[in-house]
Design goal:
343 residues; alpha+beta; conserved putative lor/sdh protein from methanococcus maripaludis s2 fold; Elongation Factor Tu (Ef-tu), domain 3; 3 domains; 4 helices; disordered N terminus; disordered C terminus
Length: 343
């Protein structure tokens, strides 16, 4: 009786272990993953380069108004940041004692030289020099107080002259910028520089505002890497009156288009080795395919890969759980990728 009970128990245990082993084997042979898939589609997306920079006047759009002669600053009529019209008074300067003396000497010398020339005691060259010396001071306004005015519509960048200051000829008084001469100066990575060209469209977004982007275009892409920053300078034009001088801006440059397979960004995976890949549904089983992401816009990517199967759907959810050969259970059939840039 005891022997029969022991034999029955042993048989029962053996059946249990066999069933467990069979279950494990069955689970291994029939492992599956729940995924969502979509069809791939050929198309193209814009290739963009993102950079950050600042609004500033172009070098050709700046001008420094300087003292025409040695003088004392009598009145300063403008302030930094002010937008002024052509002809607006900027600063009044009064000739210094030295300038007044030089003017009087030039005037007297001219009168004396003219008299000598009439008496044939001075040459034509002597007369020409005397006239030139006098006209330079006269045209500069050395005869009395002189108000310097804006030569064009401008923005006041800098005021160097203080009321009452004594200045020498050529000293900076006021710095101006042309409102239609502002640019955004950015720096881009040298690896992306060759793709950027003059005329490329640019979307400019101030970091301090939530307004829609300002449309601009690349005016100049330097051929030289800036030694201080290690980046390549790019100058971007934009419509006058849209951005403020000194504003920090994000620039998204459209540097062309890239064609390939368009897939949702959620399909792009990266393994432990750093390899970028996607998972395709090949006859109901998963297949990992190494790919290169050629362009990105929004939630879509353009990809390419030597082993991509154009007819096989691509996994857009659940791909992390899939190895080569894993059976796929499709949770929800999807349509084709949105393909906003598809052709």
């Amino acid at each position: 009786m005891t022997i029969r009970k022991f034999s029955a128990l042993a048989l029962a245990l053996a059946l249990v272990f066999a069933a467990a082993a069979a279950a494990r084997a069955d689970g291994s042979d029939n492992s599956s993953a729940l995924v969502k898939i979509t069809q791939m589609k050929q198309g193209s997306l814009p290739v963009t380069v993102t950079a950050f920079g600042q609004v500033q006047p172009a070098a050709s759009a700046k001008e420094s108004i300087t003292a025409p002669f040695g003088a004392r600053v009598s009145v300063v009529d403008v302030q930094v940041g002010q937008r002024i019209a052509k002809g607006t008074p900027l600063v009044m300067v009064t000739p210094s004692l030295e300038t007044k003396a030089a003017y009087k000497l030039a005037k007297d010398t001219l009168a004396r030289t003219r008299s000598l020339a009439k008496a044939h005691l001075a040459t034509a060259g002597d007369l020409a020099k005397a006239e030139s010396d006098y006209s330079v001071l006269e045209e500069a306004g050395a005869s009395g107080p002189n108000t310097l005015k804006a030569p064009y519509d401008a923005i006041v960048l800098k005021v160097d002259a203080a009321q009452g200051a004594v200045v020498a000829r050529g000293d900076a008084l006021i710095e101006l910028a042309k409102p239609d001469g502002l640019v955004v100066q950015v720096g881009i990575d040298p690896g992306q520089a060759m793709s950027v060209k003059a005329g490329n469209a640019v979307a400019l977004t101030p970091l301090s505002a939530s307004a829609p982007p300002v449309e601009g275009k690349v005016a100049l892409r330097s051929e030289v890497i800036n030694a201080d920053t290690g980046q390549v300078p790019v100058q971007i034009d934009f419509p006058a009156g849209k951005l403020l001088i000194g504003e920090i801006v994000r620039a998204v440059i459209t540097a062309g288009e890239q064609s390939g397979f368009i897939v949702p960004h959620s399909a792009i995976l990266v393994d432990d080795d750093g390899t970028v890949y996607v998972v395709q549904d090949v006859d109901g089983a998963g297949k990992k395919v190494a790919v290169e992401v050629l362009a990105t816009k929004g939630d879509e990517d353009v990809i390419a890969g030597d082993d991509l199967d154009a007819k096989a759907p691509i996994v857009i959810e659940g791909g992390h759980e899939v190895d080569d050969g894993t059976k796929l259970r499709v949770a929800e059939a999807q349509g084709t990728a949105k393909g906003a840039g598809t052709k």
